[in-house]
Amino acid sequence: MFRWLLTPTHKRIPNSLSPAFSTSTVVPPQYSSLFKPQNPADQSRQFPPQLTLRNLGDTYKSSQPQLSAKPSSLHLTCFNSETYEFLASRYRDSRSSSDAEELNLRILKNGFAGDVFLSNTLINIYVRIGDLVSAGKLFEEMPARNSVTWACLISGYTQNGMTNEACLCFKRMIRAGFLPNHYAFGSALRACQYSGQSGLKLGVQIHGLLSKSRYSSDVVVSNVLMSMYGSCLGSTGDAHRVFDEVEIKSSISWNSIISVFSQRGDAVSAFELFSDMQKEGFGFSLKPNEFTYGSLITAACCMSDYSLSLLEQMLSRVTKSGFLQDLYVGSALVSGFARFGLINSAKKIFEQMGERNSVSMNGLMVGLVRQKRGEEAAEVFAKMKDLVGINLDSYVILLSSFAEFSDSEEGKRKGKEVHAHVTRTGLVDIKVAIGNGLVNMYAKCNAIANSCSVFRLMIDKDSVSWSSMIAGLDQNGYFEGAVTSFCEMRRSGFVPSNFTLISTLSSCSSLGWIMLGQQIHCETLKLGLDLDVSVSNALLMLYAETGYLNECQKVFFLMPEYDQVSWNSIIGALAESDASVLEAVKYFMGMMQSGLTLNRVTFINIIAAASSLSHCKLGQQIHTVVLKYHAADDCAIENALIAFYGKCGAIDNCEKIFSRMDERRDEVSWNSMISGYIHNELLPKAMDMVWFMMQRGQRLDCFTFATVLSACASVATLERGMEVHACSIRACLESDVVVGSALIDMYSKCGRVDYASRFFKLMPSRNVYSWNSMISGYARHGHGDKALKLFERMKLHGQPPDHVTFVGVLSACSHVGLVDAGFEHFKSMSDVYKLAPQMEHYSCVVDLLGRAGEINKIENFINKMPMEPNILIWRTVLGACCRANGRNTDLGRRAGKMLTELEPQNAVNYVLLSNMYASGEKWEDVAKARIAMRKAAVKKEAGCSWVTMKDGVHVFVAGDKSHPEKESIYKKLKELNRKMRDAGYVPETKYALYDLEVETKEELLSYHSEKLAVAFVLTRKSELPIRIMKNLRVCGDCHSAFKYISKIVGRQIVLRDSNRFHHFDDGKCSCGDYW
């Protein structure tokens, strides 16, 4: 098999030339990596060569058994011998291209072209300078090769990252009939290790071949084999079995196996092996060295609970052993302490190191970046870049530091400087990680356009490039761009990582694209990434954000493990849904039972759930748990507690928490307190809080004003609302679209639709809420034509209507009797705008038919509804029957029966039923309705009216004689009655819903609360419009009387009842008597 090696060109080196044999000559320095454990942190040191001259000579002889005798044709002259020895000695450690060229010429000149030894030496030089093309070419041209030749080339490919070429070369070696030596085995196994999962199959085959050779127990090869199994298979068991088969374990063997467990994050096993190493090496030379400590420091950082303690112990041990100044150990310690935020300790170790390099500098920079101290990391780079040989990773870390600058603009400026440098020097095209770093840096500095530009110009992209780009687009709010990039990535053939899927799912959540999200969910299942807890958390958020709670729970149940984010996501999703709030509480209990630590997000979510339930005791128990976890001083949790207690009516607790917060208060704290006061009908306190905020110089945001304006609108306090408006102008928030929409709503609900209209026209920008508020305002005031015209303008401005818009439009049609137009708009919801009508829209149509007197059409409309009518529908039906003077009593009876079944404790249902019977003078049925009301033990809400004057709010009920000015009020009322009768007023006794004499009915009607209110206002001297609020619907008689009064006194009267506004002026009402 080896006969072809016996050619005249092959020169066997005689034993007298043994000095020319050296490890560095025949075996390249790259082989030294076979003797050390492969630790990612070890970039600073190589083991010195371990082979002796005799070992190398034996290796060479064993690979060439046919050359045991000197061929006579290979005798060298004395001159040639000296030249040969000179060449072997002169170039054995060469590392320059000029030396390679020179040796090549001398080999050719001196007739050594076919000499294997010198050719191997030349291949080694090519390998050292990274010129694998020339090394491969020389290899192919060699007429004779030995196992060392093959080993040289395989090692060269491996050390230069050409793992595929190394594996192919090893296969060729086997096919050529050569038995690999331990260098070839080691290099091939290392190539398999660097190839990851794809190299595992060949690695196992090499192991099989190795077990049949005499190198099966070789320490060097066994060490590499351990590393290969640890990296490729992720199986410490296989690596440990190889370790156990090593007969004589050296310190290198122990370091290798400890390194495997360290890299897998199994710190306990790593330290147990270290303990065994010390026991077995007692009295021998198995002392831990720098590589042992380096692996143990890496392992210590993996411990979840005791990392810092172990790290400090390792520091003491290292200091005692004298390895603190070692480059490898020092770099690991710097990286470890920096990782845990102990930057001062890391800096101290860094300064004590006798020698520093890019690895130690990078470790310190990484720690600073993780602590959001980007400026300091950049400063370390600036100071050390001329003192250590910075590598490409240094630029990647430097770029990441700019994203952590406190001033993002400064970070971006510095990033551009580095970008220019790496572009000018061509570094950006050498290492793809630099391009990835630029993409990531620009994205985090809010320069997404620059990020996209860098990504587009990258020559080579990997999965990290795509993940960085997608994450950047997602974080900057370019959700569609992120999803599009994900699709392009898949078309490019890249397999998404867990980080890619997380960012893409986040974008789908933000867009509400559930269909695409479900497709990506399928992708995660195919890739097996659904088992990744972070990916599953992203799926939880997707389904939670899009309202698919059942799918959300299914994903949670299928998760193999949970973390804080998992529990918080499911609790938060359920807490936001009114139908699933109790489920949220159950999951909260499950999280506590699981033993996981509760954090601020957990508490905020569960407090929100308790708030939705208005369950005071539950909230108090949660508050207790918050105190137990020492989380009561967290501003966000305190804000949630204020909101909870405010909703539960415990305003005293709100005030206690708020007063204790002091300097921790933010805008949410103030807004929560104001909302609590408003919820508990303490508007004066809410307004005082606003003034207090302004006096303290506290910033008032748009939500503060919107909340207070909403409260002013709910109780129709125009003066207070105008004061808040003035405050918003002082706070420069008048042009804010949220505040503007709230002002329109407030003015329209307080009777000043003219102010609302004027402000609407002056708004610089409008959203759907602005349009809806104005349309509803016009409808509420009976300006149906204006409301519908505004709706047409809304569509012309490109603002698509929503469900609320159509409630306003249908109400406008109802208030002015536009039945046909109302039905057209109702139909357009589904036909034109693809909006499914909701119960509120069906109620508006029923009201439309009722006001138009189309009682007979109501029942047919209800029967065609796609859903069962609810309380709102039946109450609207019953109200329509009341206005119809008792016509279609059967429908009214049906509506009354349904209401008393669905809501038996609501007095309004009985009152409406009684009024329907009374309007048709069915007094027996009236009596039955009132008996049913007494049996249900419910009380009717007393009708009242109120007016706001300079001296406060004055409230009146029918026949009220408790007011201090009752005498002047009744005197003025008597005067008004006389003048009204003179003007032609006749009391409409049909609205006195009692079976009494006509005179008694007239007396009852004359003392209605709204008439007392208007009489009281007229006792004061003023020419301003009279504004009266009423909690119930105004009766027909009072409506008629107010028309007369407005003409008699010559003043406008604005009356707001429970349904709408009536503007009485000069004997006419804005409703046109259609109400």
Automatic annotation (TrEMBL):
The keyword Repeat applies. GO terms for biological process: RNA modification. Keywords: Repeat. Gene3D superfamilies: Tetratricopeptide repeat domain (1.25.40.10). PROSITE patterns: PPR. Pfam families: DYW_deaminase (PF14432), E_motif (PF20431), Eplus_motif (PF20430), PPR (PF01535), PPR_2 (PF13041). Residues 984-1075 form the DYW domain. PPR repeats lie at residues 146-180, 250-284, 326-360, 462-496, 563-598, 666-700, 767-801. Coiled coil: none annotated. One of its GO terms (molecular function) is zinc ion binding. InterPro entries: DYW_dom, E2_motif, E_motif, PPR_At4g14850-like_plant, PPR_rpt, TPR-like_helical_dom_sf. It comes from the Eukaryota. Belongs to the PPR family. PCMP-H subfamily. This is DYW domain-containing protein. It comes from Rhamnella rubrinervis.
